[in-house]
Amino acid sequence: MEDALAQEDLSDPALWARAEAAWPRELAGAAAGLARLDERAGADPGFVARLAEREVADLTWAEGAPVGLEQLTMWRHGHVGQGGGLMRAAWAARRLCGPVALNADLGTAEGLRSFLGLASPERIDPVLLPTIARATGAAWAEEAAGWCEDMERLRGLHPVTRALAAYTLWHWRELSDPGDMVEAAVVAARIGAADAPALRFLPLLSGNRLALRHLGQGAEARLGRWLAAATAATGHGLRELARLGEWQSRAAAQAARMQGKLPKALVPLFLRHGLVTANLVQDEAGVTQQAANRTLLRWAEAGLITEISGQDRYRFWRVQA
Question: Where do the HTH DNA binding domain residues begin and end (predicted)?
Answer without folding.
Answer: 265-317
